[in-house]
Amino acid sequence: MDTEHGRGIISTYTREPMKQTYQMYFGRNTPAGEYVTDDAWESFRDVLSMTFMSYTIQDVEGAWKGVQEDTKLVTVTTKYREKVNDVCQAYVNLFNQDAVGLLISEPMTFVTKESEIY
Q1: pLDDT reading at 22 higher than 80
Q2: Which of 102, 99, 97 is nearest to 36 (CA)?
Q3: Which 3-state string (H, E, C) describes 12-29?
Q4: How much is the pLDDT for 27?
Q5: CATH code at 100?
Q6: Taking each helix axis from N to C terminus, what angle separates 81-94 and 38-51, rounded to the nearest 10 degrees?
Q7: What is the span of the domain harbouring residue 72?
């Protein structure tokens, strides 16, 4: 507690891993010239739902090795980096991908409704 300044500050030190925000870029073209169909993506989405309680999916355009492709951008905030890696590796293996793009940043914060005080 920060008693010098009269504020009740709780230490943020913790032994638990710190949450981070992960953006996973899942390209829909395959090296064999095929395309990850909507049905195939929806099946893979089950992996996301079983792994993470909350996530966001966006349809974006990208390019890999100079070829434009439809891409699914999945954003999740978690302290479980290994789960993120497992999901990326599952996509690589399932759809014979060269790679999944992964951007790691500070954790997302949330604005929530303030509790009413009676």
Answers
A1: yes
A2: 97
A3: CCCCCCCCEEEEEEEECE
A4: 98
A5: 3.30.70
A6: 160
A7: 24-105
